Amino acid sequence: MTASTETRPSTPGPSETLDPSDWDQLRAQAHRMLDETIDYIANIREQPVWRPIPDEVRARFREGLPREASELGEIYREYSDFIAPYATGNVHPGFMGWVHGGGNVIGVLAEMLAAGLNANLGGRDHMPIEVERQIAEWTRTMFGFPPGASGIFVTGTSMANLMAVWVARTAALGQEARQHGVGGEGALLTAYTSKATHGCVSKAMDLAGFGSDALRTMPFDRSHRVDVAAMRAQIARDREAGLRPFLVVGSAGTVDVGAIDDLVALSELCREEKLWFHVDGAYGALGVLSPSIAPRLAGLEQADSVALDFHKWGQVPYDAGFLLVRDSQRHLDAFAAPAVYLRRETRGLAAGSPWPCDLGPDLSRGFRALKTWFTLKAFGTKKLGAMIERTCALARYLEEKISAEPRLELLAPAQLNIVCFRYRSDDANRVNSEIVADIQESGIAVPSTTTLDGKLAIRAAIINHRTDTRDLDALVEAVLKFGERH
Question: Does residue 371 sit within a domain?
């Protein structure tokens, strides 16, 4: 080959790194952003809980894809002016609408550190995975699970409940079901839960391939605890019909009123019937940290799996859901899927098997464990338990205020930290729906609604560690004020 025809490698163009050209300028802007974030949280009570989004603000976020670079300061101003003021509001102590945790500042800092590491917790041998394994061990200890239990962080309990159904499915049908699907014998599988259970359990049955009709929803008693006798009878009827019961889902803190099923009775039923016992403990499971609530969770330690959210009562910033499984081999059977490009080694970065991706569907996973680790280390389980206990005491305070006010009606006893009540009216459902919207739009507080025995209820879920009696007083005053207008 002559010199004139020789092929030479092309020379790369100028550097296109995304690092800043001026690190000092970035550092100054970063300090400002962090300081103002801390100020936002420290002074959150001075702000409305929630603001309706103006049309012109919403319209700004219909703009097209940015083609050119923008200055960080300009982007941050847009965030400060048009995003932060119109957030959900669950940082605020007046947020009581849904079961949203308030987060904590230590967790914010940990999230920043996790973003700096940019670790992928799908697998390989690095310390962020050891942090997640440590939290799995801590969670095992909290719930009294035996050594050898496994755990994994997920987005939230909706995903954790779905994963539990997958694990129970594999335990019932064997690993062949992962290859051949749930047809045939799988079509006979049936699961059981309460009518008060969160709708994500029905959705999990759908997504797992069984269909929501395979989930039998049982009646509950006046305390909203599932009727175990009715469940037992339904299981017997299904067996007689040639079906194959395989799963029971109990609740540790139902979505409407915070009821805790009789977990001891459910665990005994599952042992007798040889069924997988899963507990949806989205927020209530962390009640094990409270000396007064823990006895009411007896039987949780007998579960085959538990789903929970550290971002609810645990106050970890979103998101930090978790699935704990008693038998780690069952857990692995449901998800492990070796691939040549994920070859495991005994040394080097590819060591550390099994990897978290063997315990769930995700290969790309963020470092959710770090903000949870920081939160548990910074506050300890005693302080977190005391905080949980206090939210329940605040619920009793609100319950007493409602009972003492003739214009209000308590619709269910406060079993944990959720209070359901309404303003008395001849057209109560419509009026209370209007009251809730009025209060939300006023920025005074954010309750939500639910329906109990056909009655639309104002629902106050006291999850936020910042909530105090004055916030509950403000809620009651607002209900009465807006109620009079309707």
Answer: no
